[in-house]
Write a structure and sequence with these properties.
Layout: H1 4-20, E1 22-26, E2 46-48, H2 53-61, E3 72-76, H3 88-93, E4 95-97, H4 109-117, H5 123-135, H6 140-149, H7 153-161, H8 167-176, H9 181-187, H10 190-201, H11 205-210
Parallel strand pairs: 1-3, 1-4, 2-3
Helix pairs in contact: 1-4, 4-5, 6-7
Length: 211
């Protein structure tokens, strides 16, 4: 599978670590939660927020016991607390990357997708992807699949939902597995699914709903 998004964000983090040593990565929408452990930081340690800022600070202190400036990535899957600033010491010691950051510190998935997919997909496709990102109806996995196969957004989403790209696989799974109905609605791919079923079976789901 394509790793355009992962590689792009990985390069940003590596650059910031080289420049600042410590990088605090705030991901309030949890867009990158599934790829954090897959990012190759070349032996640079990482710490993840697990519900306690106190615990996070305690774990980070172990990396600075010798008073030497060491490289470290700290991943926090929540919005930066700009009222109490529980990680202010670490933030001042390094840099912060977050969706609301400026220029290279901006990790908004829409911003990253635009840059990572530029030249790979059409501007129309990228705009549609960004729209779905704002609607929170598309994942990084789905974006990567679109980029890899140059498929339409909805077709790529269907192949992930039904775990297969062949029409017969998708149709059979749709008929036999009603537990996916909610996912289909959430991802807003009813139109593409109806089109696929019509082309494969000659059945228009819109007509069946009327009856």
């Amino acid at each position: 599978m394509s790793l355009l998004i992962q590689n792009y964000i990985e390069n940003i983090i590596k650059k910031k670590i080289t420049e600042n040593g410590i990088v605090l990565w705030y991901d309030p929408d949890k867009n990158y939660k599934d790829i954090v452990d897959k990012i190759d930081l070349c032996d640079v340690p990482s710490i993840k927020y697990e519900g306690s800022y106190y615990d996070l600070r305690f774990k980070s202190e172990k990396h600075f016991e010798n008073q030497d400036r060491q490289s470290l990535l700290i991943y926090v899957d929540r919005k930066r607390d700009d009222v109490n600033f529980p990680l202010i010491e670490l933030e001042k010691s390094g840099c912060v990357i977050e969706p609301s950051g400026s220029l290279e510190e901006n990790t908004s998935l829409a911003v990253i997708a635009k840059s990572a997919l530029s030249g790979r997909l059409s501007s129309e496709a990228i705009s549609e992807i960004c729209k779905k990102i704002e609607e929170r109806t598309i994942s990084i996995e789905e974006i990567e699949k679109i980029a890899e196969n140059a498929k339409s957004i909805d077709t790529a989403t269907l192949s992930i939902i039904f775990k297969g790209s062949e029409p017969q696989t998708i149709v059979l799974s749709f008929i036999t597995n009603t537990t996916l109905d909610e996912t289909i609605r959430t991802k807003r791919v009813e139109k593409e699914l109806n089109k696929l079923i019509y082309n494969f079976l000659g059945i228009d789901l819109k007509d069946t709903k009327k009856n």
